[in-house]
Amino acid sequence: DCPGKEGTGGRKRNLTLLRNKLYLGQRRRTEPVVESTTTAGDHGNLRRSQSDRTEYSQKLQEKMAPQMVSSTPATPLQEDKEEEEEEEEVRRCMMARRVKIIAELLQTEKDYISDLDLCIKEVIQPLRNMQIARFDVDGLFSNVELVHQLSAKLLSLLEEATTDVEPPMQIIGEVFLQIKGPLEDTYKIYCYHHDDAHTMLEYYEKDEELKQHLRDCVQSLK
């Protein structure tokens, strides 16, 4: 209650407040340093954590790559391989078609030669042997025998170019180029006399005796 004691208590309280203010001030000065250090450490940990996750993800993708091929889009190498396979399939189909066409060409030529052979043996030669005065065998059949010889030559060349030869190596174009001239000369004569032979046949069919000879020849062919 005395004035002296009150002054002493006030000074103590002032000292206490001063110490508190100094402590708070000191804390404010030190907290940024601590916070900065802590923050920097956290960032460092964060960076290391991201790096670890990235590295782990890369390793995982490398391990999983063989299993993920079927579910991932085709790579340029895969696309090139698929294109090559498609092209190879097209080549195989074209080669198979070419082989079939060549075989059909050979068979057609064989059938044609067989027909000509029958015509010569069963029609032309018997009519010649009859020696009918009013029957012009050569005028009616023109140069069929020469056509037969040339066709036999063509077939021989085709067989030579295809027998025991791998399909890709079968070159038949050269055969036709080789025999082009004789073919043109032979069929030029045949075609030139075709209309006259047709007119001659119509005339012979009006003659009963000659007509019967022709019937006999046709029956022999059958």
From TrEMBL:
Single GO cellular component term: cytoplasm
Record GO terms (molecular function): guanyl-nucleotide exchange factor activity
Ranges of Basic and acidic residues composition bias in the record: 49-62
Protein name per Swiss-Prot or TrEMBL: ARH38 factor
Matching PROSITE patterns: DH_2
Organism: Nesospiza acunhae
Region of interest called Disordered, as start-end residue ranges on this chain: 1-88
Cross-referenced Pfam families: RhoGEF
Sequence ranges assigned to domain DH in this UniProt record: 97-222
PANTHER family: NUCLEAR FUSION PROTEIN FUS2, RHO GUANINE NUCLEOTIDE EXCHANGE FACTOR 38
